[in-house]
Amino acid sequence: MMYPEMRMRRLRQSEKMRELVAETRLHPSDFILPIFFDQNIEKVKTTDSMPGVKTFPLSGYEKIASDIQSSGVDSVLVFGVPEKKDAVGSGAYAKDGVVQKAIQGLKEKSDLLVIADLCLCEYTDHGHCGVLDDDGCVINDETIELYGRTAVSQADAGADIIAPSGMMDGQIAAIRRALDDAGHKNVPIMAYSAKFYSAYYGPFRDVANSAPGKGNRAGYQMQCGNRLEAMREIELDVAEGADIIMVKPAGPYLDIIREARDRFDLPLAAYQVSGEYAMIKAAAQNGWIDEERIMMESLLGIKRAGADMIITYYAEDAARML
Length: 322
Description:
By secondary structure, the chain is an alpha/beta fold. It has a single domain (24-321), classed as TIM Barrel (Alpha-Beta Barrel), CATH 3.20.20. The chain has helices at residues 15-20, 61-70, 98-109, 140-157, 171-181, 202-208, 227-240, 254-263, 274-285, 291-305, 315-321; strands spanning 31-38, 45-47, 50-56, 75-81, 113-118, 161-164, 190-195, 244-248, 268-272, 309-312.
């Protein structure tokens, strides 16, 4: 049947009609809010390159959680800025580390689902995601043993999910083994499976103070143009025991999200990263775009591509709109 018998506009005539036939929907439960804690501050601060994103001191957990949950968001991804850094990132796996304390505080004062980001870049004095050799290259196998120690300390603190983001070979297997050996067999792993070497991470590094001092992370994060390699990375993480897989960044990699959704049946997360957020914010502040519409369109596109959950700095704003 063709025009004039078939008229596609019949189902677009009103808002209620359009909502009735909507194929893709967003819900507050789809969103995970990244949240930052800093051992070096006593009051909330903000960062110029991330308008509206707060960094919290290690206090006030009940209000922090209440404000988040009042928006409809129930899941957070915790990052930390330590008091001191060293060559081996010891603050990442310290029992009294910044993320460990934040997890304990949030779990004691709320029923938020708390996901712990696991990496060493925020804790090393060189800013890389692991231990370096004499040539400044990350030593893979020694690093993943430290990832295992970090995972156990985060699970001991009460983390509901461990989310390793370092892109080391074998990291999921090492973390799964460490968690199981420590009695945390039921703690799931959200793997940053396809994490690309991206220019979109800059504003995050301002907030987390995690930029590498020398060199870059191209030696362990993925090349931006490599679709087949992304599928291989995800496949390996699944084989090693990942419970949730992730694509990061989200917006520039919708094709990777779509292919991952088609090929794998695990829950799929996508991270709308700091650069994506900052670009929308900057354009909106200049009056060039409608921020709310762009925000929701970008999130809907990520969901339409196949993501089951979206990590986004817009989580609270989007949830309130919904």
